[in-house]
Amino acid sequence: MRTTYRMRAGRFLGIPAAGLILLGVAAVLWGVGLPTAVVTVFAALGGLVVLAGLWILLRPPVLLKLGSDDVQVRGLRTPWTDITEVGRTGTTQGEAIVLRTKQEEHSVLIPVHWLAPAKVDTLETDLRERLNAANGYTIWDGTAAEPGDPAE
Fold first, then answer.
1. What is the pTM of this model?
2. What's the rounded Cα separation, in Å, for the pair 81 and 69?
3. What 3-state class would DSSP assign to 147?
4. Both ends of the chain: CA-CA distance in Å?
């Protein structure tokens, strides 16, 4: 099963706002009496930017995809067996979730502020569970083994 996490839609509010500004410029140019071709260019460009912005708000870009045998972050695919640790770290851009790999220079950072606040805890739990499953780990339930069961 593949789980997809998308960027926070609020990051892209400036795109439809820029389109609305272009539509406003087209209205002002029409009011001033500039040629119809100039007004049409600004109106068409503004309309296209607004539509593109609305599309991005409805379907924000994919940040990462978690599969059963790999994780794909912004197009970079890494098998779960290459990931050694999942944790948080501070960066100059704020807090990030780091996927440490066997080769330290290939570690992957996922900025926390790119995700919706409600998705951060869900992502961390999902990453932890999938990493444990990939390495064959189970969470200890706090019970002791039966006396007849040999230790593994």
1. 0.72
2. 8
3. coil
4. 30
